[in-house]
């Protein structure tokens, strides 16, 4: 494991309010950032908004405000949402900020001077919503955008182009030599077959048809193509090319920092193909991994404002609490595969994992410790076979959780922990503490209680990157002192004897699936 970690979300378009898909990606990055911090890795987590482009200019015009006013309002809402979701980003970059604009202009100039960019004439099929030009093969006979499937139109303009062929061999080498450069690994074939093998064209990197963007210093009639502008955020936010490059040196240039971009499948080609090429042109290091996550739909239909089926995260957080929403997103969908959001799944997932498994284990354990040991966690004595098995399983779980999380397999990492919690519930059934109590087997009973408390606390540490509010409540319930809340003590077995345990309200009340389905449907618009 490298000793530093830089993780980024895409910077989202503030053209409409954030929906559950944006929240999904941001929460997954947040979990990884919190996980690395928990492991003592120095971490920098970046998100932000991508505020230029024709689409935003049009939206502002429709609303009768300036583009800047338009993006200011939505960017503030994004930030408020991330706060409500307890996102722990270290910075929030907006592409209309001075610190970014200057860097993008410098990047363009450097690549131009380096002979990576030339002035030419662009003709092609243009998709306005995606702000992308496409080739004949890509749009097919129906002339539809291969990304969003809307009609495209012929367009021609004087443009600057980036020479992709110049860097293609180096890019292919990176892809070959680093099997984990694109994750999940099956995404590599998609890149090769859809974009690289059919013949990669030079990338058009300027526009003259609108003006809401960053001007090219050498030719101010041109605006820098929104993707060159947007991708640069990953280094402008670190202070690249500024008076203070300390963060850039630490989190980009240092080979001991792992750089991970997490992006949706819709924008992977920009991150896997063009971004590394721009970086090569600038003589900079390329990222270690581009993790491509799947897209979520609602009940099998693509979420879209016009269809009126967009799930907004805020009302979910207000009703179910931030942890239930974070948990659902992280655990329900295998990170890297497409997923289907449905109200039933949300309610069931909350019930199965949080109410019945984790929550129930906590309630049972705190009640029994109160009843049998006057609310104090007992000390260990000689372990039985079943006790030993729980001890071993706990250690095994920590190991597999670490391996999976380091490999960005977040949902699988969490499943390892829920398996441990299930095993602890089973351990109660098997050891039958109520019988041990009746038979006066105090030492055996004490072991069971101490081991249950230990299992809950270890699981809570492992889940703390996701369950940010509940983790604190669980530590309080079990009287876990600050110095024992961290990861350092995770391998100590049962260091909590004597702790005062309190009986709180159930952390996760069971949901009525029918009632909650109706509620979630009513807020999807
Ligand atoms: O593409 N399911 O911004 P964007 C899961 N500004 N994730 C989803 C999703 C869904 N249904 N819908 C969106 C842009 N996302 C550019 C990015 S980066 C230098 C510039 C997430 O607002 C997913 O991560 O369209 C996707 O890649 C991203 O939002 C696109 O956000």
**Poorly predicted runs of 5 or more residues:** none
**CATH fold assignment of the largest domain:** Rossmann fold
Top-tier CATH class of the largest domain: Alpha Beta
Count of separate DSSP helical elements: 20
Residue-averaged pLDDT, rounded? 95
Radius of gyration: 26 Å
Give a count of the beta strands, DSSP E runs of length 2 or more: 15
* Structural class category: alpha/beta
Bound molecules: ligand ME8
Shape: elongated
CATH architectural designation of the largest domain: 3-Layer(aba) Sandwich
The name of the CATH superfamily of the largest domain reads: HUPs
Strand order, largest beta sheet: 3-2-1-11-12-7
Q: What would the keywords be for this entry?
A:
alpha/beta; Isoleucyl-tRNA Synthetase, Domain 1; 15 strands; binds ligand ME8
Structure description:
The protein has 525 residues and is an alpha/beta fold. Helix content is 51%, strand content 14%. The strands form four sheets. Strands 3-2-1-11-12-7 form a six-stranded parallel sheet, with helices on both faces. It has a four-stranded antiparallel sheet with strand order 5-4-6-8. A three-stranded mixed sheet has the order 14-13-15. Strand 13 (296-298) and strand 14 (301-302) form a beta hairpin. Residues 10-13, 21-22, 24-25, 50, 230-231, 233, 263-264, 266-267, 295-296, 303 line the site of ligand ME8. The site of ligand ME8 has 19 residues, from strand 1, helix 1, helix 8 and strand 11.
């Amino acid at each position: 494991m490298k000793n530093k970690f830089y993780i980024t979300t895409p910077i989202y378009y503030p053209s409409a309010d954030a929906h559950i898909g944006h929240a999904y990606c941001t929460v997954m990055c947040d979990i990884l950032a919190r996980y690395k911090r928990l492991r003592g890795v120095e971490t920098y987590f970046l998100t932000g908004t991508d505020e230029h482009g024709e689409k935003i200019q049009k939206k502002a015009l429709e609303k009768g405000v300036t583009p800047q006013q338009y993006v200011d309002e939505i960017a503030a809402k994004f930030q408020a949402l991330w706060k409500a979701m307890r996102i722990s980003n270290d910075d929030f970059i907006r592409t209309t900020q001075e610190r970014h604009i200057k860097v993008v202009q410098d990047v363009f100039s450097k690549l131009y001077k380096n002979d990576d960019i030339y002035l030419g004439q662009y003709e092609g099929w243009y998709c306005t919503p995606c702000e992308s030009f496409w080739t004949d093969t890509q749009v097919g006979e129906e002339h539809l955008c291969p990304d969003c499937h809307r009609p495209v139109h012929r367009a021609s303009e004087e443009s600057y182009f980036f020479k992709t062929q110049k860097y293609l061999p180096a890019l292919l080498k990176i892809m070959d030599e680093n099997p984990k450069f694109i994750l999940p690994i099956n995404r590599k074939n998609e890149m090769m077959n859809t974009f690289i093998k059919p013949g990669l064209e030079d990338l058009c990197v300027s526009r003259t048809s609108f003006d809401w963007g960053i001007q090219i210093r050498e030719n101010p009639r041109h605006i820098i193509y929104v993707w060159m502008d947007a991708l640069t955020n990953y280094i402008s936010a670190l202070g690249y090319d500024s008076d203070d490059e300390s963060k850039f040196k630490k989190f980009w240039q240092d080979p001991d920092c792992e750089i991970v971009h997490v992006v949706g499948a819709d924008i992977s080609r920009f991150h896997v193909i063009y971004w590394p090429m721009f970086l090569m042109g600038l003589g900079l290091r390329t990222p270690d991994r581009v993790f491509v996550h799947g897209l979520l739909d609602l009940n099998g239909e693509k979420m879209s404002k016009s269809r009126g089926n967009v799930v907004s995260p805020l009302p979910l957080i207000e009703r179910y609490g931030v942890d239930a929403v974070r948990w659902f997103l992280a655990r329900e969908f295998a990170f890297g595969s497409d997923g289907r959001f449905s109200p039933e799944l949300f309610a069931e997932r909350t019930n199965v994992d949080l109410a019945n498994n984790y929550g129930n284990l906590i309630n049972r354990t705190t009640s029994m410790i109160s009843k049998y040991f006057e609310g104090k966690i007992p000390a260990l004595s000689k372990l039985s076979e079943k006790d030993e098995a729980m001890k071993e399983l706990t250690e095994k779980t920590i190991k597999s959780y670490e391996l999976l999380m380091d490999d960005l397999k977040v949902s699988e990492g969490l499943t390892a922990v829920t398996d441990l919690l299930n095993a602890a519930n089973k351990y109660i059934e098997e050891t039958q503490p109520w019988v041990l109590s009746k038979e006066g087997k105090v030492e055996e009973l004490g072991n069971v209680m101490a081991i249950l408390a230990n299992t809950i606390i270890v699981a809570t540490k492992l889940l703390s990157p996701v369950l940010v509010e509940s983790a604190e409540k669980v530590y309080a319930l079990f009287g876990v002192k600050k110095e024992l809340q961290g990861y350092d003590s995770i391998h100590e077995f049962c260091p909590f004897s004597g702790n005062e345990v309190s009986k709180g309200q159930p952390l996760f009340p069971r949901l009525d699936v029918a009632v909650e389905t109706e509620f979630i449907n009513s807020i999807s618009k």
